[in-house]
Write a structure and sequence with these properties.
Blueprint lengths: L18 H6 L7 H4 L19 H11 L5 E5 L8 E7 L2 E9 L2 E6 L14 E2 L2 E3 L6 E3 L4 E3 L20 E5 L2 E5 L7 H11 L8 E11 L3 H6 L7 H4 L7 E10 L4 E8 L13 H8 L20 H17 L8 H5 L1 E6 L3 E4 L5 E9 L2 E14 L13 E3 L14 H21 L13 H14 L4
Parallel strand pairs: 11-18
Antiparallel strand pairs: 1-10, 2-3, 2-5, 3-4, 6-7, 7-8, 9-10, 11-17, 12-13, 13-14, 14-15, 15-16, 16-17
Helix pairs in contact: 7-8
Bound molecules: FE2/S2 (inorganic) cluster (FES) and fe (ii) ion.
The site of FE2/S2 (inorganic) cluster (FES) has 9 residues, from loops.
C-alpha cells in the first residue's frame, strides 16, 4: 500500500514558551538532568489497533517480551526482615520475592514442585514455605527441606527439588525480577535513570500510599494514558490554570528510558494568559479556588510569580514534615511533573518533592484488561525512624479512584484518565481501519514503547 508522502517538518515543536524557557527563570540553579534534551524523530507510521486487542499478539508479547524484561516486583522496604516475602503475579506467572538472608533478596517461581499448587498466596513472614496441599516444604533460600512421605519419593533428589530461581536485582530501593536467566544486568536497562536520580535518592523514601485497580483496557492503552500531557485539554481541563501542558518536553535517553516534563505553576497556553492571574494559578494548584481571603487562603505576595511562590510553599511544607533542607532545590524539582519511564511498565516521577510511581501490567492472561498500581513515595524523616510502608489498597470493580481517600486531590485526575480507557478498548476492538496514529513529538514515548515491544517480538533484543 503506497501512500502519498506529505512534506512535513519531522522536528516541529510548539512555537510558544518551551519547558527550557521556563527553567531559565527558575529562582534556583537547575540540575543538568533537567537541561538534557534528546528527542529523535521515530517515524510517523500508524500502529495496528489489533496490537491492543489480538490474543495472538498478546501471546507473543508474553513469550518474547514479558519473559525477558526487568519488572519492578516490590520495594525493599516491604521485605525488611529475613523471611519477609511478597507475591508478584504477572501474565500468568507467579513469583515469591523473599528476604532469604539479611543482605540477600531471592526470587523463586511460586509453584510447588509436587503437583503444582501455588506455594504462597499472600505476603507475610515465614521461616519456610510449606505447601498447603500435601506438605512439601522448602527453606526460604529455595533449598528443599522435607516432605511427609520420604519413603514414597525416593526417586527425587534434593537438587531436583530446589525451587527454580528468578533473577533479582535492586535499584533505588526497588526490587526488580527477570524470568530470563541470561538477562543482561538491570543497570543496562536503568542506566540513564541512575544518573538523573543522583539528587533524588529513591532509597531514602517510603511508600506513603499504594493503590491498585484492574482497568478494563489493554495494559498498553493503560500505560500510554500516562505518557503524554496533551490530553489535558479535554480530559483534565480543571488543571490547565496551573499546568503548562502544551509546553511539555519529551525525551528519550536510551531504548528503555524516556521522560516527559510538564511545568507546574504556569498556565496552559490553551488559556488566555491575560485572564489568568498569578493568584488564580495558586488557587487552582492548591485547590483553594472559591475560598475567600478570610479563610486560611494562600496569597501570592506582590511581585512574585505563582511558580516561584508555589515552589517555596512546597519547600517549606516538606521541610516541616520531614526535617530535610529543600532550600537548594530548584522550583522545577519542587513542582514539576517529571515522569521517567522504564520500559516496559514502570514510571518513576523525578524531583525533590514526594513522588509518584506507576506500574502497569496485563491483568493475568486477559488481553482486554490491565492493572495499575499507583504509589506515592515520601522522603523518610531526616531523624527517622523509617515509617512503615503502606500496604496495597485494592479498589474493587465497583469502586472508583475517588474511593481511595489517600490519593487526595489526585484521585479526581486518575478517575478522569480511567474514565476514557474502557471506551478506548471498545474503540480499538471496533476499529474500521485497524490503525492508531501518534503525534510525532508529544507521543514520541508511546511510539518508542511500541518500537521496543516489536524489537523483542522480532528477537532483535
Ligand atoms: S501440590 Fe504441593 S505438596 Fe502436593
Ligand atoms: Fe491524565
Amino acid at each position: 500500500m503506497n501512500k502519498p508522502q506529505l512534506d512535513f517538518d519531522k522536528n516541529a515543536r510548539f512555537d510558544g514558551t518551551s519547558y527550557q524557557d521556563i527553567l531559565d527563570i527558575d529562582t534556583k540553579e537547575v540540575p543538568e538532568s533537567l537541561r538534557a534534551q534528546e528527542a529523535p524523530y521515530l517515524g510517523s507510521e500508524p500502529v495496528p489497533a489489533s496490537h491492543y486487542t489480538s490474543e495472538e499478539r498478546f501471546k507473543a508479547e508474553i513469550e518474547k517480551m514479558w519473559m525477558r524484561v526487568w519488572q519492578m516486583a516490590c520495594r525493599e522496604e516491604e521485605i525488611p526482615n529475613v523471611g519477609d516475602h511478597i507475591v508478584y503475579d504477572n501474565v500468568g506467572k507467579s513469583v515469591i520475592v523473599v528476604r532469604s538472608a539479611p543482605d540477600t533478596i531471592s526470587a523463586f517461581y511460586n509453584v510447588c514442585l509436587h503437583r503444582g499448587r501455588k506455594l504462597v498466596t499472600d505476603r507475610g513472614c515465614k521461616n519456610q514455605f510449606r505447601c498447603p496441599f500435601h506438605g512439601f516444604t522448602w527453606n526460604i533460600d529455595g533449598s528443599f527441606k522435607e516432605h511427609p512421605f520420604p519413603w514414597d519419593f525416593q526417586h527425587l533428589s534434593d537438587e531436583e527439588l530446589q525451587l527454580p530461581q528468578v533473577k533479582v536485582e535492586t535499584w533505588g530501593g526497588f526490587v526488580f525480577i527477570n524470568f530470563d536467566q541470561n538477562a543482561k544486568p538491570l543497570m543496562d536497562t536503568i542506566g540513564p535513570l541512575d544518573d538523573h536520580f543522583q539528587r533524588w535518592n529513591q532509597e531514602e523514601r517510603y511508600i506513603q500510599v499504594h493503590v491498585a485497580k484492574v482497568v478494563k483496557c489493554n495494559w498498553k492503552a493503560l500505560s500510554e494514558a500516562f505518557m503524554e500531557s496533551h490530553h489535558t485539554i479535554d480530559t483534565h481541563p480543571q488543571i490547565m490554570p496551573y499546568l503548562a501542558c502544551v509546553n511539555s518536553q519529551y525525551d528519550m535517553f536510551s531504548d528503555y528510558i524516556t521522560r516527559q516534563i510538564s511545568a507546574t505553576g504556569v498556565p496552559s497556553p490553551h488559556l488566555d494568559k491575560d485572564k489568568v492571574t498569578e493568584q488564580m494559578v495558586i488557587d487552582s494548584m492548591f485547590g483553594q479556588a472559591g475560598r475567600t481571603a478570610s479563610d486560611d487562603k494562600i496569597e501570592v505576595p506582590d511581585g512574585m510569580t505563582a511558580r516561584a511562590f508555589g515552589a517555596e510553599v512546597v519547600r517549606q511544607t516538606m521541610a516541616a514534615q520531614d526535617g530535610r533542607d529543600y532550600s537548594e532545590y530548584s522550583d522545577a524539582e519542587m513542582l514539576d511533573a517529571i515522569l521517567y519511564n522504564v520500559f516496559p511498565n514502570l514510571s518513576v516521577w523525578g524531583g525533590a518533592a514526594a513522588n509518584l510511581i506507576y506500574r502497569w501490567r496485563p491483568n493475568g492472561l486477559d488481553v482486554n484488561s490491565g492493572i495499575m498500581d499507583v504509589y506515592r513515595l515520601a522522603p523518610v524523616p531526616k531523624d527517622g525512624p523509617r515509617p512503615k510502608p503502606a500496604t496495597v489498597h485494592w479498589l474493587t470493580d465497583e469502586e472508583n479512584w475517588t474511593d481511595a481517600e489517600e490519593l487526595a486531590g489526585l484521585a479526581d485526575i486518575f478517575e478522569q484518565d480511567m474514565g476514557n480507557l474502557p471506551f478506548v478498548q471498545e474503540g480499538l476492538i471496533a476499529s474500521g481501519n485497524n490503525q492508531v496514529q501518534f503525534a510525532n513529538y508529544q507521543e514520541m514515548r508511546i511510539r518508542q514503547h511500541h518500537i521496543m515491544i516489536q524489537k523483542y517480538i522480532d528477537d532483535e533484543i
